[in-house]
């Protein structure tokens, strides 16, 4: 078995600890040291005090409260989390010019070439953690390794609020004793399948040939696990990642099954309004509208519709979104809805839109959208609200990650 150990451990994986819950504990001193759950219907985040009772992200609120009856449940504050994320990423970009965002609360940093000006990777990681704690008030864990995969595993092992470097000559000694779920792509079902064949640790995976793994898990997963179990990961930290879609989603929890069509439509309007506002702000337009659904049985479904031409018009994209929801209504009524989301794909980075004749003398949708955006920029997003949302809970939005 050949494993390349060339190079040094210069890739950092920085991951905020229980991000949403930590922001709540930071902003409300009475919550510190106490079990905190963010989100009532579905757990968006849980403090480590709540996790000690078995509470986990994406768990139903009822189950979470049953596990930890004395937990303090707080509503999410997405604006506070966005501000905290922006502040943390300022520290990241001040630490290294090579930063690859994975989500609102984690990123890879390449610190190769910085030894003379910033010190060793461990010193850089320690200083990054100290700055995030002092400047943003949040705990963060940093894993350091030669590959992106192992840096992420290191940060998982170092949580919470830790720092761990895996030296190149100790990679497999560190990796192989870990449970198989530490490998990217191995969820509960794949882990159960592997367990039935006596495969429980990364070492067990590494003992299998690529042929055996592909026969067991399929070509793509088999090849991936064959490489990762040997810490073969040739990916580099990539900056300036181009977003191929703009989207948003909202978790509804068990309450989603009892929502009326009008209530679901209010969620649809709210999500599409947010998505198109972001597209116009970023100078983007798109052609394909994608609907994403999750059901009571944890199953998922996707529907899509491609428009004749790229647009960022709220009205046009909303019409397509409503059509997709109506088409999916029979499936939703049978299986119960727990999450709804939309994305606009086939992005035109120039934001160009095909205008249509006749232009007329009245207000077209582009003019209306531009006027609404201007008012909101000057007076806040709540200054103008769509009529269908009056008197309704606009809800919170789960972050949509770059593709």
Question: What share of the residues does DSSP label as strand, in percent?
Answer: 15-25%
C-alpha Rg (nearest Å): 23 Å
Mean pLDDT: 84
SS-based class: alpha+beta
Report strand order across the widest sheet. Answer: 5-6-1-7-8
**Helical content class:** 40-55%
- Report low-confidence residues grouped into runs of 5 or more: 1-6, 359-363, 393-403
Could you spell the SSE succession in H and E letters? EHEEHHEHEEHHEHEHHHHHEHEEHEH
Q: Number of domains in the coordinates?
A: 3
Q: Write down the overall geometry.
A: globular
Structure summary, number of beta strands: 12
Largest sheet: 5 strands, mixed
CATH architecture of the largest domain: 2-Layer Sandwich
- Tally of separate helices: 15
Pfam families: IMS, IMS_C, IMS_HHH
Catalytic activity: DNA(n) + a 2'-deoxyribonucleoside 5'-triphosphate = DNA(n+1) + diphosphate
Keywords: Cytoplasm, DNA damage, DNA repair, DNA replication, DNA-binding, DNA-directed DNA polymerase, Magnesium, Metal-binding, Mutator protein, Nucleotidyltransferase, Transferase
InterPro entries: DNA/RNA_pol_sf, DNA_pol_Y-fam_lit_finger_sf, DNA_pol_Y-fam_little_finger, DNA_polymerase-Y, DNApol_IV, PolY_HhH_motif, Rev_trsase/Diguanyl_cyclase, UmuC
